[in-house]
Amino acid sequence: MVDAADGEEPGQAPPALGQLEQSLAMAAELRGMAEALVRASAWMGLVGWAVMLFQADGTHLFPCGMAGLGGRWQPPLRPLSTGDTWPVGQAALGQERAGCGTTGPYPLPAKAGAAAWMVLPLAKRQGVAVALRPGVTAFRSVEQAFLREAVNLLDRYLPGVERTGRTVEPAPRLRPRSAGVFRLDLPDERVECDEVFARQHALPGPGRYPLADILCRIPAQDLPRIQEILGELRERPGTFEVSYRLTLDNSGMRHLRAHCTSSRTEAGVVQDISGEVTDVTTEAQQIGEREALLREQLQRADRMISLAASAASASGTRELAAAACEALAVFGADALAIVEAHGGRTRVVTAAGYDREHRAVLDGLSLSARTPLTDALRNQQAVFAPSHRDLVSAYPHYAATLPRLRRHAWAAIPLPLADRTTPAVCMFSFNRAHAFQLSDQPLLIAGAALLGRALERCRSYDAEHERAVSLQRSLLPARLPEHPGLLLTASYRPAAPKAHAGGDWYDAFPLRDGRMALTIGDVEGHHTEAAALMGRLRTTLRAYAALIPDPATVLALTNNLLTAENDADPDHALLATCCLIALDPKTGRLDCATAAHPAPLIHTPDDTPVPHFPTGLPLGAFADTSYPAAGLTLPTGSKLLLYTDGFTDTPHTDPDHAREQLRQLLAATEPKVGAHALHEVATACLTPLRPHDDSALLLAHLTGA
């Protein structure tokens, strides 16, 4: 046998162990763990693994999980005694072994050939893990260090899986059973009992007691049913079993089970009930604990299903973080941040549950800093800090800052991303100390894996939304024209990332007869195609209006053009709404035509009612559609508000009510002018922090100046 090389040789550097930890945490059985070890060791060549665990006798090993080993390299499927001289037996007793040659770590066929191997003992004397690579090249020291780290992770998650091939036979045992004996005299309603029964029911000692002394200790919610049972026992003789509870002063709730027999006199009357009572409090508590654990597991599994659904449907990284924080609240986590490495420092991608100050603390940390977050990023391994004490134990420099920390436990878990050049970590924070159970860690790591897969999709979604919004903003007018006696101002608000970008637009431009054209519209859909069509419609309206200043004719010509495009490519057909106004700032004369768009809101200084504006069909629906026009003259000081349905057609809002709110807001801003009034209207109407649709406003104020 040739000993493993001590010196370092040039070769491939070991990868981070974060992916291995995630795989081990989510493995359901030992074979899955062995397969995860094989994948993690692939950078060293063809490395197989065998996990051999002690049998019940504690002196024999049995291969319980194998992967990557050909038939001739597998350990024999029989128990191996630790008293033998094989390296696996020596390692099982706590001694790490490594070698290379034709002699293997366990019995192998004579023609198996040479192989490098390393046997590492598992924690708590569970057994050994064997890594084996066919060939004559021993494991380098850097490879051995990697194998040790891999087995350390295996130790962490091994107790959470079912160990196939390892059985423990239940041993016979003797358990004392103490039963109290009683006799209940029904006519007198008195109980005669021995010392054990008296002790069970907190009575002074053996003797004869009123039945009421026992019933007074029955919980109030149980007493009606106990009375019913006593009534049934009076009516019919026989042997029965009754389970009941007592509330005791010092020991809390006691669970008892009575086996009793009722006897009848010659006249057919039940005279007494006798039997024995056994204390089953421990058994009841164990059943309750198992039921509570099962409910907790079901609740957590349900939350993981909820997280998977939320992650799959999340639109944008912000929505993803909020959904994950809500789904994982069952673990006690109240805040979550997804952080990536960028230029040697941390960069917060998104967060939920953190205020601006706390988020800023996580942003811009040097990756060389010693923190749970940076350690998880740098080493790509999960870091758990269950309490302030554990945090200071691992990171002593935090001792001085403990009073300022708002959270009390942390879990920083690497996210598995396709692009490994930019590692990312999800950090869960808890508002109280949290003991991470063996069942917690795999579920949190599984949750991080779901977030990692969803993060890349949400980033693409965010990028698409940003491109669409940028395109849309670039197609809107950079500045509005100026005209004596008319003040113009406009506002555009993009939709939330879930809705992408829309096709809302506004425009204002002078006509050749001195009037000012005001237009606002909305292209259906929320995508870059809608934004691109919006830009073409703006250009078309300007071109037709330069030749024909009548708003109704301009809409008719634009409709014919869009309808021809839709007919030529019906798979990509889009409709649009539009309101076009020609306004004379000198006289206040207004001519308006609309194509399925909300009519403008008008407020006059004397609050004169405004006539109804008729509307026509959407643009692009039918060719040769005519559009009705309406006209009126506005006094100086009037305000004209053009808007899109992002302000009125919102979830859980009545459009008529929203329109009336717009009208009242416009009237309330009467003393103000321009951008101040518009900002007040837009802010009051866009109350949701994440509007479902984009929106545009165009405000014209006849100042008379």
Distance between the termini: 102 Å
Mean pLDDT: 80
Could you list the spans in which at least 5 consecutive residues all have pLDDT below 50? 1-9, 162-170, 686-691
Q: Give the class from helix and strand content and strand pairing.
A: alpha+beta
Estimated share of beta-strand residues? 25-35%
- Roughly how many Å is the radius of gyration? 39 Å
What is the tally of beta strands?
26
Relative helix content = 25-40%
What summary fits the major beta sheet? 6 strands, antiparallel
Describe this structure in words.
- It is a single chain.
- The protein is of the alpha+beta class.
- It is 33% helix and 26% strand.
- The chain has 17 helices and 26 strands.
- The strands form 5 sheets. The chain has a 6-stranded antiparallel β-sheet.
- A hairpin with a 4-residue loop joins strand 7 and strand 8 (190-193).
- The protein is flat, with a radius of gyration of 39 Å.
- The N and C termini lie far apart (102 Å).
Overview in brief:
It contains 17 helices and 26 strands. With 705 residues, it is α+β, with helices and mostly antiparallel strands.
Task: Throw out a few tags for this protein.
705 residues; alpha+beta; 33% helix; 26 strands; six-stranded antiparallel β-sheet; 17 helices
